[in-house]
Design goal:
68 residues; mainly alpha; three-stranded antiparallel sheet; 9% strand; globular
Length: 68
Amino acid sequence: MTSVREVYDAFLVKMLDDEWADWDLEDIKTDWKGILMGALPWFKFPRVSLEIDEEEDAFVEDLNNEEI
Protein backbone atom coordinates (compact mmCIF):
# COMPACT_ATOMS: atom_id res chain seq x y z
CA MET A 1 0.00 0.00 0.00
CA THR A 2 1.15 3.50 -0.78
CA SER A 3 -0.04 6.15 1.65
CA VAL A 4 -1.95 9.12 0.32
CA ARG A 5 0.49 11.29 2.26
CA GLU A 6 3.33 10.03 0.05
CA VAL A 7 1.45 11.35 -3.00
CA TYR A 8 0.76 14.65 -1.22
CA ASP A 9 4.48 15.00 -0.40
CA ALA A 10 5.40 14.51 -4.07
CA PHE A 11 2.83 17.15 -5.02
CA LEU A 12 4.03 19.64 -2.43
CA VAL A 13 7.62 19.50 -3.69
CA LYS A 14 6.36 21.05 -6.93
CA MET A 15 4.51 23.92 -5.26
CA LEU A 16 6.19 27.32 -5.38
CA ASP A 17 4.05 29.12 -2.80
CA ASP A 18 2.64 27.82 0.43
CA GLU A 19 -0.95 28.85 -0.12
CA TRP A 20 -2.04 26.83 2.91
CA ALA A 21 0.07 28.76 5.43
CA ASP A 22 -2.92 30.33 7.18
CA TRP A 23 -5.27 27.33 6.96
CA ASP A 24 -6.03 24.85 9.71
CA LEU A 25 -4.99 21.23 9.23
CA GLU A 26 -8.47 19.83 8.51
CA ASP A 27 -9.09 22.41 5.76
CA ILE A 28 -5.68 21.63 4.25
CA LYS A 29 -6.40 17.90 4.19
CA THR A 30 -9.80 18.52 2.61
CA ASP A 31 -8.25 20.70 -0.10
CA TRP A 32 -5.47 18.20 -0.86
CA LYS A 33 -8.01 15.37 -1.03
CA GLY A 34 -10.09 17.40 -3.50
CA ILE A 35 -7.05 18.04 -5.69
CA LEU A 36 -6.11 14.34 -5.60
CA MET A 37 -9.62 13.12 -6.40
CA GLY A 38 -9.86 15.64 -9.24
CA ALA A 39 -6.54 14.49 -10.70
CA LEU A 40 -7.14 10.71 -10.61
CA PRO A 41 -9.51 10.62 -13.61
CA TRP A 42 -6.84 12.32 -15.72
CA PHE A 43 -4.39 9.46 -15.15
CA LYS A 44 -4.87 7.34 -18.25
CA PHE A 45 -4.09 3.65 -18.29
CA PRO A 46 -2.67 3.18 -14.77
CA ARG A 47 -0.82 -0.11 -14.36
CA VAL A 48 -2.22 -0.57 -10.87
CA SER A 49 -5.50 0.26 -9.21
CA LEU A 50 -5.82 3.85 -8.05
CA GLU A 51 -8.53 2.90 -5.57
CA ILE A 52 -8.08 4.44 -2.12
CA ASP A 53 -8.78 2.63 1.13
CA GLU A 54 -10.41 5.41 3.18
CA GLU A 55 -9.81 3.68 6.52
CA GLU A 56 -6.07 3.29 5.90
CA ASP A 57 -5.79 6.58 3.96
CA ALA A 58 -3.72 4.70 1.40
CA PHE A 59 -4.00 3.28 -2.08
CA VAL A 60 -4.97 -0.40 -2.09
CA GLU A 61 -1.94 -1.23 -4.24
CA ASP A 62 1.65 -0.04 -4.25
CA LEU A 63 2.20 2.86 -6.62
CA ASN A 64 5.45 3.39 -8.48
CA ASN A 65 7.00 6.79 -9.17
CA GLU A 66 5.01 7.20 -12.39
CA GLU A 67 1.69 6.82 -10.60
CA ILE A 68 2.78 8.98 -7.68
